[in-house]
Amino acid sequence: MQDERAEQDQLIETFDGRARRRADRRAFFTAALGVAAAGGAFAYADPALAQTTVTDSDVLNFALNLEYLEAQFYLYAVNGSGLPSNLTSSGSGAAGGTVTGGAKVDFTGDPLVGAYAREIAADEQAHVAFLRTALGGSAVAMPNINISSDANGPFTAAARTAGVIGSTDTFNPYSSPNNFLLGAFIFEDVGVTAYKGAAPLLSNKTFLEAAAGILAVEAYHAAIVRTTLYSKGVQALVDATEKISNARDTLDGNPTLDAVRGIGPDDDQGIAPSGSGGTLTANLAPLNSNGLAYSRTPGQVLNIVYLNGGAATMGGFFPNGVNGNIKSTT
Predict the structure, then answer these.
(1) In this predicted structure, what is the pLDDT of residue 39?
(2) Burial, 118: exposed, middle or buried (Cβ in 10 Å; 0-12, 13-18, 19+)?
(3) Most buried one in 138, 176, 271, 312, CB count within 10 A?
């Protein structure tokens, strides 16, 4: 076993390091409290709390909250309306929450982006339906969601603090195909890291395989968004992804580097390429030095969607918090 470990460590050390694509981060929130996984269960690392074991159903319900958010954003962008009420109620029949904001995007100037948006919207609705079926009566209702484009909405708050827009400007992800792509960029990379981070928290292999299937689709979505933004050839869009990435990176704290598990303090990347001329290399897949996608804990994911790097139970895209047992960043 020791020999195998030594060989593994030696192999890891020989991998070429990947060029860091980071300028100094815009520090705009404080560090988040971490979480740790233990034996297929989820344990909060907040010393002020007793360790709380969370079940597979709790983990899937946490994922369902994120799917509600993504589905509503894409469906509104495509149709001007969101999920039907039968896909927002709880498994026991309690009514789902409300959606603030959301609007149909005019994709006539970029029909390819419109086609991508319609595909992703259908996929996200399918994810909601699938998770609700898997959870049955245990499925949580959709929480209140804010996807508003107004001056006080979460998209504007995120864009202002990241420096994508000025302190008095408004960011509307529904105003153009390019803005829609940036709005999608805010979500998609986070979804990939959330599902990857949830993998060791699941003990049921059927649930694990299902989560892996959704992870793969979310990764396809993220690749579509990143590739399309990159192919635009617009420096302002590239710069915006770097700023958003730096903001998310600050929000999710400073976890200890673990290159084998895909955990690290620098776990987010925009789409800025490296090199030039014949060495120009795109950055469509945000990976670590071992070519692995990054993982985020549920607490880190909530820090980002709540737009709060500290201890929080609500805010940002979930003004009253998510539903279920995993709802606090701590």
Answers:
(1) 33
(2) middle
(3) 271
Cβ(181)–Cβ(101) below 8 Å: no
Beta strands in the chain (DSSP E): 35-38, 41-44, 99-101, 145-147
Which residues of the chain fall short of a pLDDT of 50?
1-2, 4-51
- Tokens (6 digits) for 144: 């209140």
Q: What is the pLDDT of residue 11?
A: 39
Residue 298 near residue 253, CB atoms below 8 Å: no
Distance CA 128, CA 310 (A): 29
Q: What is the pLDDT of residues 302-322, one digit of tens each?
A: 999 999 999 999 999 999 999
pTM: 0.84
Are the CB atoms for 192 and 215 separated by under 8 Å? Answer: yes
Q: What are phi and psi of 165, to 5 degrees?
A: -130, 170
3-state secondary structure of 162: helix
Q: Going by C-beta distance under 8 Å and a sequence separation of 6 or more, which residues neighbour residue 120?
A: 74, 184, 221, 224
What pLDDT is attached to residue 264? 83
pLDDT number for residue 87: 98
Q: How many CB atoms lie under 10 A from the CB of residue 73?
A: 29
Kindly report the number of other CB atoms within 10 A of residue 27's CB atom: 11
> Could you give phi then psi for residue 210, rounded to 5 degrees?
-65, -45
Residue from 54, 70, 127, 63 nearest 102 by CA: 70
Q: What are φ and ψ of residue 292, in 5° steps?
A: -105, 140
Query: Alpha helices, DSSP H only, in 86-173?
Result: 111-135, 154-162
Helix 154-162 / helix 235-251 crossing angle, nearest 10 deg: 100
CA distance 228 to 272: 13
pLDDT value for 52: 65
* Rounded CA separation 309/304 (Å): 7
HSE (side-chain half, CA atoms, 13 Å) at 35: 30
The encoded tokens of residue 158 equal 């995120």
Mind listing the pLDDT tens digit for each residue in 136-157?
999 999 999 999 999 999 999 9
Q: In this predicted structure, what is the pLDDT of residue 19? A: 38
Structure tokens at 281: 């290399």
Which two three-digit tokens encode residue 185?
């960029």
